[in-house]
Amino acid sequence: MVRCGEATPCRTLNRVIELKYLTKRYGATLAVDDLSFTVRPGRVTGFLGPNGAGKSTTMRLILGLAAPTSGEVLVNGRRYASFPRPMREVGALLDANAVHVGRSAYNHLLCLARTNGIGPRRVTAVLHHVGLSDVARKNVGGFSLGMKQRLGIAAALLGDPGVLIFDEPVNGLDPDGIRWIRDLMRSLAAQGRTILLSSHLMSEMALTADSIVMLGRGKLVAEATIEELTARYPSLEDAYLALTASSVQYGAGGPGR
Amino acid sequence: MTVLRSEWLKIHSVRSYRLAIAVAFGGILLGLGLAQMAAEMYESASPAQQARASLAELEEVVLMVPQLSLGILGVLVMTSEYTTGLIRTSLTVVPRRWPMLAGKAAVVGVIGLVTGPAVVFGTHVTCRWVIGDRFSGLYQTAFADKLPLLVALSLTVPAFALLGLGMGAILRSAAGAIALLVGLLYVIPMIVDKFPSPWSEWLGSVMFGALPRQISGDLTTPGVYGTSLPPPVAAGLLACYAVLPVLAGAWLLRRRDA
């Protein structure tokens, strides 16, 4: 066992997301089906799967927004809802458009920061970090999707968390923005953080992620490093198409449907 | 405490919410306008008409302005979380969930507690000044005699604002919650009034608008409302209108997936 003293914070040792037999059922549909995997620190874990495969539902289950039908998901060894100051443990960007159009970027972030005892100085710092300092006092209603993505990333970074979850953060970004997100993800992972990143852009994911978790119809289809996948398939895109296509076939012939 | 500061900023930082609060205070201006109109009509009437002239208590008339604007504010501060999708972020940063609604309730309640008395007492002072001794000295009664009614009227404003918040938390849709609020305040009492006796009297007594007069025991003006509740029961019922929907909303907020 590794013991950690005052100088080396324990947080760096257990920055993990662990899913154990996680299942979520909505009526007759199994959105997430007996899903088990672990997202580890120090790398970017790409989260792939067709639309409706259960990626967003899985993220909501991780964040305690939806209750699992069975199984459990732990963040840093604990249930998410048990964190008194969750922003210091986990940062998340689920939907960049989920902002009040009548509120300024600064106030939007300060509303979130206040709930976790984070002050205005940190808000100013993250706004600077994502390049929104100049528009901090402008209403979010006038922001482009790319600016809202930056704002959502700023919100995720507010508590300087060890675990970060991003649902399609590159949607709507221009090439500069895509490059910026890639570099940001790489540097956050290099700092020892745990990054779970979903995207439909395979070539971008191949450049950003170190390992991949792939879903099909709520089930785990693949859990591998980028190297392992690109050794077996010509590209990540080919791996994705082959693996998710077979999951659809299994699903079509399986007992569920 | 931290959640409270966040919820206060959430309301304070949106212009339309500040406008709703300003409109609520505007009830005083409506009171001033109505009082001046009433005074002018009184002056232009014959002495015989003047002797018979009566006037509804204007504090009660203008009360709908702060009630509705803050009731709608209560609805919107909750339903806007859902329409914008912010609810997921809000619940992610406050995963126990109920403190978020408690924070909103505290902020909305305090805004109502400031606005309600300001409008009611502001209108009362305005009327004393503008109406003077007209209308058989309606506004010349001792202030202490009027105080229970004025306090009861004032308290309906925070209660109605919290009712709006609770409805918003339960229904999650602004249109549904606002329709229900307006129905509760204006439509249902009129329907209940048409019920056969004793139902009209009994149901008319538990209507939201019937409560302030029953709380104060000042039952001088007849209306569509019943008068069969003793003051403590009426006060308890007003508290139920304010608190129960919020509690139901908190219970649902904890249970429902976001």
UniProtKB/TrEMBL annotation, chain B:
Keyword Coiled coil carried by entry: no
Transmembrane segments: 20-42, 62-84, 105-131, 147-167, 174-192, 233-253
Domain of life (superkingdom): Bacteria
Keywords: Membrane, Transmembrane, Transmembrane helix
Name of the protein in its database record: ABC transporter permease
Organism: Nonomuraea corallina
